[in-house]
Design a protein that fits this description.
Layout lengths: L12 H9 L6 E5 L2 E5 L4 H17 L3 E5 L2 E4 L5 E3 L3 E5 L9 E2 L6 E5 L6 H15 L4 E6 L4 E9 L2 E9 L3 E4 L5 E4 L9
Parallel strand pairs: 4-7, 8-9
Antiparallel strand pairs: 1-2, 3-6, 4-5, 6-8, 9-10, 10-11, 12-13
Length: 192
């Protein structure tokens, strides 16, 4: 049996979108590298970390919105469908974009790791690569297993050319076009 890849997907994008439209609210479905993925429901610390970041973004860049769970067309030729924990873009950017928006104009995506067996592959590799292929300038991974913020930037040829890891407590400069400085001391409250 051939493994599912972007070249040999489990199903068509149209079939995935139909399936996702009818999924119960207790699960979030994604279509990454031609494979159906089930994203776990976030726990309390996951949501609290996202809200911390949302407040930081609003304070520093009020002309931008950090949209939770906005579906994006990602991957090679936009054949994937991902729901990053957050997508940063201009206020009103996603208006009229539907459930699966084009990533053009998104400045940053955010992933906060979950505590499940698929988080390593999904959050640290596959979604990062899909966001790079979609040429999203910054991919911020808040890695709860490593107690670190990993900033991926400068997408080139489907990969991020720059990767910098910062421990919780560090001052983190998110590169342009984001241009936000994060004081991460508070994240130590949610360290494992």
């Amino acid at each position: 049996m051939t493994p599912s890849t972007a070249e040999h997907p489990q199903m068509s994008v149209e079939d995935f979108e139909e399936l996702a439209r009818h999924a119960p609210e207790t699960v979030t479905l994604e279509f990454i590298n031609g494979k159906l993925e089930v994203k776990p429901v976030p726990d309390g610390d996951h949501v609290t970390i996202f809200m911390w970041l949302l407040r930081q973004c609003m304070r520093h860049r009020p002309e931008l919105d950090l949209h939770p769970e906005q579906g994006l067309k990602v991957g090679a030729y936009r054949k994937g469908r991902a729901r990053p924990d957050g997508s940063l873009g201009p206020v009103g950017h996603f208006a009229g974009g539907g459930e699966w928006a084009d990533p053009v104009g998104v400045l940053m995506v955010v992933e906060v790791t979950s505590h499940d067996s698929g988080t390593d592959r999904r959050d640290r590799i596959e979604k990062r690569d899909g966001h790079a292929q979609a040429e999203i300038p910054v991919h911020l991974l808040i890695d709860r297993d490593a107690n670190a913020l990993v900033v991926h930037s400068d997408p080139q040829e489907g990969r991020y050319a720059q990767t910098v890891s910062h421990p919780y407590g560090a001052t983190v400069e998110l590169p342009d076009p984001v241009g936000i400085t994060l004081e991460t001391e508070r994240l130590k409250n949610y360290a494992l």
